[in-house]
Design goal:
Radius of gyration: 18 Å
CATH architecture of the largest domain: 3-Layer(aba) Sandwich
Mean pLDDT: 93
Structural class: alpha/beta
Number of domains: 2
Shape: globular
CATH topology of the largest domain: Rossmann fold
Largest sheet: 8 strands, mixed
Strand order of the largest sheet: 3-2-1-4-7-15-16-17
Bound molecules: ribulose-5-phosphate
Number of helices: 7
Helix content: 25-40%
Low-confidence stretches: none
Number of strands: 17
């Protein structure tokens, strides 16, 4: 039950639970990757058990596996073509709902899926909110061929940009570089502060060897922020500014009965 969860997990669950209510019968939904997105998938499994028809496009193999496990209809992006909604976690979000994503290594599929959606909703615990992006290392997906040269090019590029740190590490999985679902590697850029995210995103994506970066700029429309006491606030970015509504989670019925994280 939710009392057994840590405050952060309770916050993630609250955000996911609130966001699941945005999914209507018949929708095609992009399913994010990570621990918060996993809660969402479980909540959607409940909705399907309750009679909703939801077609989900997962952003990673592990999300696809969980989605099938909880009874969602899993389709590819090519089958769905365009999505009503994508719901995903984030590593950081700012006041304009610009994001750093890719902590789970799925940023490429996540960006493609979010961009192919009428609406992107981010679900996050309150600790992910920042004034300026960059405390979380920025993930950049690079092709394995010549990745050390690509890393040097990225380093050179950073010299002309408004960032505080310039350390770059290759993400590891044990002794070997981490491999994404597309067979690529991930460089983590320890920038500490990103002063001009649009400029940085453009500069990175122009380098040969870089496939995509983890800055999601002007893509997210709504953030659902979960809190450790079980509250969730939905913030919408629209011409009128940020709208908030508050929500208390009720006991989550069957969610904890059969599933381990
Ligand atoms: C995966 C992501 C995740 O959404 C991000 O890392 C947040 O993860 P979590 O919900 O586990 O905190 O971008 O590539």
């Amino acid at each position: 039950m939710t009392e057994d969860l840590s405050p952060v997990d309770r916050a993630k669950f609250a955000a996911a639970r609130r966001a699941a209510d945005l999914v209507e019968d018949g929708m095609r939904v992009g399913l994010g990757t990570g621990s918060t997105a996993a809660w969402l998938v479980r909540c959607l499994g409940e909705a399907v058990a309750g009679g909703k028809r939801i077609r989900g496009v997962p952003t990673s193999r592990r999300t696809a596996e969980l989605a099938r496990e909880v009874g969602l209809e899993v389709v590819t992006l090519d089958e769905a073509r365009w999505l009503d909604l994508t719901i995903d976690g984030a590593d950081e979000f700012d006041a304009d709902f610009n994001l750093i994503k890719g902590g789970g290594g799925a940023l490429l599929h996540e960006k493609i899926v979010a961009t192919a959606s009428d609406r992107m909703v981010v679900i996050a615990d309150a600790g992910k909110e920042v004034g300026t992006l960059g405390a979380f290392a920025l993930p950049v997906e690079v092709i394995p061929f010549g990745w050390q040269t690509t890393r040097a090019l990225v380093e050179e590029t950073l010299a002309g940009l408004d960032v505080l740190g310039r350390d770059i590490t290759i993400r590891m999985n044990g002794e070997a570089p981490f491999v994404t679902d597309e067979g690529n590697h991930v460089l983590d850029l320890h920038l500490r502060r990103i002063g001009a995210p649009h400029r940085l995103a453009m500069a990175l994506n122009q380098l040969p060897g870089v496939v995509e970066n983890g800055l999601f700029l002007d893509i997210c429309d709504t953030v659902v922020v979960g809190h450790g006491d079980g509250r969730a606030e939905l913030r919408d970015l629209d011409p009128g500014g940020v709208q908030e509504d508050r929500f208390e989670i009720a006991e989550p019925a069957n969610l904890f009965r059969d599933l381990d994280d």
